[in-house]
Amino acid sequence: MFLTKTVILKIANPDNDLVETMQKYSDGMNYTSKVLFDNGKPMGAMKLQKLVYPYLRENLELKSQMSCNIPRQVAGCYKTLKKNKAKWQRVEFSPTSMTFSYKRDFTIDRDTVKITTINGRKPYSILNYDYAAQYFDGSWEYQASKVVLHNDGEYYFHLSIEKEIPDKEITDASTFMGVDVGINYLAVTSTTDKKCKFFAGGEIKNLRNHYKSMRARLQSKGTLSAKRMLKYISGKEKRLMRDVNHKISKEIVKFALENDISVIGLEDLTGIRNTTVSKVSKKNRHTHSSWAYRQLQTFIEYKARGVGILTHYVDPAFTSQTCIRCNHISKNNRNRLNFRCKKCGYENNADLNGAMNIEHKTRDFRYILESQGYLSATQTNA
């Protein structure tokens, strides 16, 4: 199994060569995008490269590896459009990002990244931090990486790294933890031995309600400045949620380590947006449908993988309606944050009861696999 990460390092001394290279790279992306768009349908990267390579090299004076990276990126972008069944449209690229291949057009150590620009290979100092030192210890392999112009006007090197880590089998696991994600509590965890932790979401919920009110006022105005502000608010809200999800996922994995957890159970939330929208009032649909449930789970998954903890996704059906004590299922068992079983009278926090059910389903999966001998066969065929 491979663990991949992106380490963001600030470039301390960007110069005109770097800026001009990024501009020409963007020009090359847009020229290539026009060629592909005029073709009327996606095409393979190699075929596209043959059509645009001479122009990229001779007219834009881009280096050889850049002239190979550009058609690969553009071809991939249009394939994604087709895969997502989006309207066929020409994609425009801004001069905010360019991709480099390790060794061919960049090398790096803890303090310096050497990048191929239009005026040759140049060294740039990077502001490194103690947390990043671990990624320069020789155990990680460097992959194609990017120089990115952030919204703060500074240039950063997004270093992509990869490391192979030993595979673990779920049948070797003995301790489990379920994680229920939501809005009132962003996450609630419960372990096999009934230890739990709550991650409150009240402050974030109030802040997002504030953004919601601002959006309503700006949308009613409809002016150009209002539209610009709407775009700004949207970006700020996404950055807020991403930061919150990073922090919570880090704390969840830390809690799992402290309790010697082998497997973290999560709900398979595929299609959660469509299901949720149909069940909540129109007034609350944006809050529910835009909540970054899946992002939080993804962060938990890769952080857990990095410390040797497995993750497993379970069917979310009835986890919020099932009594953990007697297994009685009823919609009436849950009333907002309260859970009270209509059959046996068991009472608990509703989200904690859900986390306990997720842990139980994860643990059941492990023992079913072991008893039926499916796991080894599945891994053999993988």
UniProtKB/TrEMBL annotation:
Family, per the entry? In the C-terminal section; belongs to the transposase 35 family. In the N-terminal section; belongs to the transposase 2 family.
Q: Write the record's keywords in alphabetical order, separated by commas.
A: DNA recombination, DNA-binding, Transposition
Protein name, as recorded: Transposase
Question: Residues in domain Cas12f1-like TNB?
Answer: 293-358
Q: Which residues form the Probable transposase IS891/IS1136/IS1341 domain?
A: 168-272
Organism of provenance: Methanolobus halotolerans
Q: Which InterPro entries match?
A: Cas12f1-like_TNB, RNA-guided_DNA_endo/Transpos, Transposase
For the keyword Ribonucleoprotein, the answer is: no
Q: What are this entry's molecular-function GO terms?
A: DNA binding
One BP term from GO: DNA recombination
